[in-house]
Design brief:
alpha+beta, Zincin-like, 2 domains, three-stranded mixed sheet, two-stranded antiparallel sheet, 52% helix, globular
Length: 170
C-alpha cells in the first residue's frame, strides 16, 4: 500500500491493491498516524515559508540556472569516472514533482532548477541518484544498494531533500 499527503491541500491519499479490505487499509493508516501528522505539520510549515519567500525574477532565475549548471557539471565530472558511467548531457528545467530524471535509453539527465535553492549535498545526492539509474533503471533493492555504496549516508540525504518541496520553491 502507498500513502501520501498531497501538497496542494493536505489530504491523505491511499493506494491499495485490488481486494485489500477496508479494515486492512484502516489498520495501515492508523499504523502511520505519526507519519501523517508530521507530514501535515511539514506542509503547513512550508506554506508559511512560501508566503514569506522572495519571488524569483527573470534575472535571478538566469543567475540560479548558470550557477546550478556549473555545480552539476562539476558533480557529473566527479562522479562519472567513479561510477564508470557516461551521461549524454543534462538539461535544467522547472519541474513540479521531481528533483531530477534520467532517460536510461539516451542517457540524458534532467535536473530541477529549484535544486539551486537546496544545500550542495542534496544536489550531489540528486546527481548520483540520476547517474545510478544508468546502472539500474528502477528503484529496486539493487538501486538503493548502489546508492549507498557510492554515496554512503544517501538515506539521510534523501530524507534531508524530502524536507524541501520542488513545487513549493517555484
Amino acid at each position: 500500500m502507498y500513502l501520501r499527503v498531497k501538497n496542494t491541500d493536505g489530504t491523505v491519499q491511499i493506494s491499495a491493491p485490488y481486494g485489500v479490505s477496508r479494515a486492512e487499509i484502516e489498520r495501515f493508516v492508523n499504523s502511520r498516524a505519526d507519519w501523517i501528522d508530521d507530514a501535515v505539520k511539514r506542509l503547513r510549515e512550508r506554506e508559511k515559508e512560501k508566503e514569506n519567500a522572495p519571488v524569483i525574477v527573470p534575472f535571478m532565475e538566469r543567475q540560479m540556472r548558470q550557477e546550478l549548471k556549473r555545480q552539476i557539471q562539476k558533480l557529473i565530472e566527479k562522479w562519472e569516472p567513479v561510477m564508470c558511467v557516461k551521461s549524454a548531457g543534462f538539461t535544467i528545467k522547472k519541474m513540479k514533482t521531481r528533483w531530477g530524471s534520467c532517460n536510461v535509453q539516451s542517457h540524458h539527465l534532467n535536473f530541477n532548477l529549484m535544486l539551486a535553492r537546496v544545500p550542495a549535498e542534496c544536489v550531489e545526492y540528486v546527481v548520483v541518484h540520476e547517474l545510478t539509474h544508468l546502472l539500474e533503471p528502477s528503484h529496486n533493492d539493487r538501486f538503493w544498494a548502489l546508492m549507498e555504496y557510492y554515496l554512503p549516508g544517501s538515506k539521510g540525504l534523501r530524507k534531508q531533500l524530502s524536507g524541501f518541496s520542488a513545487v513549493d520553491m517555484l
